[in-house]
Amino acid sequence: MTDQPGRLQDRIAVVTGASRGIGRAVAERFAAEGATVVAVARTQGALEELDDAIHQAGGPAPVLVPLDLRDFDALDRLGGSLFDRYQKLDILVGNAGALGQLSPMSHIPPDIWAEVMDINVTANYRLIRSLDPLLRQSDAGRAIFTTSGVARSPFAYFGAYAASKAALEHMVKVWAAELHKTRIKANLLDPGIVRTRMRAHAFPGEDPTQHPEPAAITERFVELAEPACKPHGEIVHV
User: Is 66 exposed, middle or buried (0-12, 13-18, 19+ CB in 10 A)?
Assistant: First the structure.
C-alpha cells in the first residue's frame, strides 16, 4: 500500500463468492484500493486465507461472512447487520455463481436446476431486496453482477447456467430502470474467458494458461465501483 488514497478509499463493499477465482481477486483489489470488503463465501478456511492476504498487503481489515447464498433468511439478516454496523453500503458485487450439470436440457436433474437458479438468480434478487435500502444511503451506490456470454448466445449443454444468466441480466436491467432517479448505478460485467475453477470444470481439455488470471480483469470492477462510474443498466465487457 502507498500513501496515495485508493480509488475506493473508505467505501464499504460486499463481494459474494469472495473465497476464490474472480471474487477473491476483486476482494483483494478492492481492499488494495482502500475499500472495507465484506467477503461472503461458503468456506471459512478460504475466507481466512483471503483475510491473511489482505492484511499482508496492508489493506483495511475485511469482514468475513461464511454463508451459503441459498440461505435466503441469512441474506435478509446480512442487510440488517450491515445497517447496524455502517448504516449504508457503497458497493455490491454479486459474483458467486454455480455452473450446474453440463448435459442435454432434458437430462438436467430438477435439484441441479434449482440449485443453479437459486445461486445465480434468486440469491441476487434476495441481495437486491436486502441491500437496496443501504445502497440508497450511499452518496454513490454501485452494484455489479457477473454475467456470461452464454446468456446471449445459446450454447449447447449449458442450459441451466445459460438460462440463469439470461434471467440475471434481465432482472438487473429492470432494477436499474427502477433506480433511474437515485444515485445508484447498477450494471452487469461479462469478464469473458478467465482462468477459474468453473472454466476448468466446463472445459477440462483446455490449456488454462492461455486465459488471463482473475487478477488481470479487476480493473473493470474498480471502474464500475468508483463514485465516478457513468454506465448504468449496461452489460460491460472486459
Answer: middle
How does 170-183 read in b/e, with b if 16+ C-beta sit within 10 Å? Answer: ebbbebbeebeeee
By residue count, the chain amounts to 238
Burial tier of 198 (Cβ tally within 10 Å: 0-12, 13-18, 19+): middle
Q: pLDDT tens digits for 77-121?
A: 999 999 999 999 999 999 999 999 999 999 999 999 999 999 999
Residues forming the active site: 161
Please write the tens of the pLDDT for every residue from 52-67. 999 999 999 999 999 9
Cell (9 digits) for 130: 436486502
Helical ranges in 7-158 per DSSP H: 21-32, 44-57, 72-86, 110-117, 123-135
Question: Where do the domains of the chain lie, and which CATH numbers do they carry?
Answer: 12-237 (3.40.50.720)
**What pTM value is reported for the model?**
0.96
